[in-house]
């Protein structure tokens, strides 16, 4: 049965998904914040809210209008902010392409996630809270991450690196005390390597997946360049961790699990039960995947083995702002020509990337 689709969130990955499914259903709606990139797409019907605290009323309006046809809709969360509303859609009879609500309560909060992973005997990196004492001797440094999103509080950053007590004090000053538990703090090592698993699951069965090395991010925490992972040992460890998670909860929908590898080990650091920043690379490898989700014909798919991907809008600034010699920057810029797939301009729907980039530049 072909369903209508409601996309929750207006980030660029949602734009890519929108373009890929617009020919498979005549009815695509989007709930997004005003000025999100997806707002400028020519596809889909938009339901917009101005500020995060206005989102719940926009959702309530949409649900009230469509709940009599709830069985005709597939709800697809495309950004972390909307995870908190999945239960509301399910309570009104809508099918949401995401894990069960009881599992989302764990995945949605990094502190709860790390505790749960530890209970499965999955090795995790030590984590602290913003009010814990940090030791900065021997050039120790840390990364502060937003642990969960909420309409009542908008985090001033996704991640922030702190190198000193003064850096910590500055971060603490940006966040009201009552929201300090929305953040976790982890040690940064010298040789950090980011690796991610991204896949689509249907009621506990993996349909498509890829494991990648994250080459660059811009801004911090948002992937701009990746390549397929090639370290057999890393891939085996990650697959075993995914299998253990799948044995202990029902995986469904878009699933990303982020890892960090350094001199201390290989650890899972984030679980995203929704569309993620480099998800278009998954679609390049499995082109029929978006269509099969909408048409509810989700069967095991075969990969095209695309090797690498770059979001040019993010990757060029990532290279230019990097702390490396000019000749190295020029070399990296020229190497973009060899990347297998590049997201830059879609001539049939040109506005989202341009407008989205301009909005990002305005934010600094």
Describe the structure.
The protein is α/β, with parallel strands linked by helices and 364 residues long. 32% of the residues lie in helices and 26% in strands. It contains twelve helices and 15 strands. The chain has a seven-stranded mixed beta sheet with strand order 13-12-9-10-11-14-15, sandwiched between helices. A hairpin with a 2-residue loop joins strand 12 (253-262) and strand 13 (265-272). The relative contact order is 0.15. The model has no long low-confidence stretch (mean pLDDT 92).
Structural descriptors:
five-stranded parallel beta sheet, 364 residues, globular, seven-stranded mixed beta sheet, alpha/beta
User: What class do helices, strands and sheet pairing give?
Assistant: alpha/beta
DSSP helical segment count: 12
State the share of residues found in helices, binned by percent: 25-40%
Strand order of the largest sheet: 13-12-9-10-11-14-15
**H/E series, N to C?**
EHEEHEHEHHEEHEEEEHEEHHEHHEH
In this structure, how is the largest beta sheet organized? 7 strands, mixed
Low-confidence regions: none
**Number of β-strand runs:** 15
Please tell me the overall pLDDT: 92
Rg over CA atoms: 20 Å
Question: What does the overall shape look like?
Answer: globular
Gap between N and C termini: 44 Å
Q: What's a quick, concise take on this entry?
A:
The protein is of the alpha/beta class and 364 residues long. It has helices spanning 12-21, 55-66, 86-91, 101-107, 110-119, 165-174, 232-248, 279-285, 289-294, 312-320, 326-335, 351-363; strands at 4-8, 28-33, 45-49, 73-77, 95-96, 141-146, 159-162, 183-188, 193-202, 205-217, 223-228, 253-262, 265-272, 308-311, 341-343. The protein is built from 12 helices and 15 strands.
